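Re: weekly structure request thread

Next one in the queue (186 aa):
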Amino acid sequence: MARTPSNMLPLGTTATDFELLDTISDNKLSLKEIKGKKGTVVMFICNHCPFVVHVNPEITRLAGEYQDKGIGFIAISSNDVENYPQDAPHLMKAKAREEGYPFPYLYDETQKVAKAYDAACTPDFYLFDTDLKLVYRGQLDNSRPGNGLPLTGEDLRRAMDALLTGTAIDPEQKPSLGCNIKWKEA
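Done, posted below.
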């Protein structure tokens, strides 16, 4: 199991707009269409990574809790499906149903979106404010497969709560850790 950290895109970076296939609805969706009213979490995940499998219950729980507060959630898979067929769009749809994702699960076939966000691993989390400026990037919490720590979503939760209450978000943020994004060979 590879252990790749986030690249930690600079805070204040503006979210790159995109239009990608939502594997759940089979419609193309853009960031501007599905962003939250008070903030937006963009997550790079995939079907098979043990780190993502580990956090799936918590990201589903967080989305259920914070979408009602105006935070939008968007999941994107950018993995090379030719070499990693378990991440193919039809299997993404099945995974979304299995996990009960209450958010779009988008397929980044060209990997341009992952590159624009400087995403490195799955899971990789980004929180943007109402102006789509980056205010948090990093880990969900300290829990990892096999380390015995409970899933709490503490780090992302703290950032979302601060965004919603208008308080400062601590700029000292820990990178996420997970499987590397499976890049296509050039």
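The longest helix spans residues 50-66. DSSP finds five helices and ten strands in the chain.
Next request, please.
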